[in-house]
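Budget justification, computational time. The allocation requested in the original proposal was used primarily to generate structure tokens for proteins on the priority list. As evidence of use, we reproduce two of the resulting records. The first is shown immediately below.
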Amino acid sequence: MTTPDKDKVTSSTPTDAKVAADEAATAAADNAREAEVVADAEVIEANEAGELDSELEKAAAEAVAGVIEESEALAAAKAEAADWQDKYVRLHAEWDTYRRRMGEQREAEKVRATEKLMESLLPVLDDFVRTVDYAETNGETGLLGGVKAVQAKLTDTLAKGGLEVINPEGEAFDALACQAVGTVDDPSVPDETVAQVYQLGYRMGDKVLRPAMVTITTGGPKREKPEEE
């Protein structure tokens, strides 16, 4: 039986296997890089020769078209925003102008209304002057009648301007038009009846300019509430 030669026997260890695997992986990576370089060179050469694949050309064209479309949409949006901003600025300016004109118009109307009232009161002032002159010349005889005539004329002038006298004597007390300054015991009339008016009140339309100062009765029967319609 022949014994094998020890120099001719090869043994495989894990370290040797790992080294061999690393070398194989390195060789494969080198081959891949070489193939990539060759492929890139071929693409560049094909592009320079006008032989770029039609699919790549189509994809590039679509990408360019998309960019152009987005740019146009952005430009349109910016234009629309600028247009709305311009409209807002002009509308704000028009509103300021309108508000200023309305304020000036209201002030002018107040002035005209005051002028009209003053003009309507001038004849009343003339009557006062004549009444005082008459009293100084002829004494106090007939002065009361003249003063009453001037008062009636003044009241009529103010009534034409919308002023209404509040004189609720004998009527039910209305807290919105009257101010009670005292009470009077009177069981003959319903409770809270205006007994006496110390100072007349005045209103214009639905607004009470000054409530009447009155005294009201107490001790009488309760006033029946008006029936609701």
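The second record produced under the same allocation is shown here.
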Amino acid sequence: MRQAEFDGRGSMIRWTEAAGRGPARVYVHGLGSASTVYNAHIAARPELAGRRTLFVDLPGHGISDRPADFGYTLEDHATALGMALDAAHVAGAELVAHSMGGSVAVVLAHRRPELVSRLVLVEANLDPLPPVTAGSSGIASYEEHDYVENGGHARVLEKVGGIWAATMRLADPRALHRSATGLVRGTTPTMRQMLVDLTAERVFLQGELSGELPGAADLEAAGVRVVNVPGAGHNITFDNPDAFAAALAATA
């Protein structure tokens, strides 16, 4: 395990790392998740093994610290992720980033393109105001006090199902709420526009069961390779790890 300070007050973002050849492959989890849980079984596959690999937990999640006075916006998370990569002496990395983590990765690549040579976005959030069925929208529908202090977090844990709840229990409720609110608010320019404007290699993995990716044709026209993963929904690494690993290996 390694760590780097991210807020100027001693709070640490942490990651686990496997040695290997470069460029580094960096896995970034989604809202209420943790990187090793969602990705370690993928990284160990023969077609992907051998690369230097980092599993980063964003602030407020997993093994990273959760300061109460941190904003947890997408920009805040991107800054912290960049500090982790700086401390790990990583540049020109391949970022494999799921859901909210994909949004964070896009912001990081937009702000600090020297850190990212390839983006593999796994059902990343590209637009503000996601559907009301999205987990972030459900969390953000609460006021922060009600979510943290008046049972909102517990009610969400009961609704999301065992797999997501298992890692969401490890996240700080205040960090979850602020992260979800940041996702709903989005960025300026939007994550989608940032993605279109990037020059790094870009791949977007969309689970077949999630339906067609909105704006896929425009993304492809901008050079983003859109891959539909059969038999998978939002959690592609769990739903179809074989197809996920094959798609990831094909981008390398």
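A brief technical remark on that second record: The longest helix spans residues 74-87.
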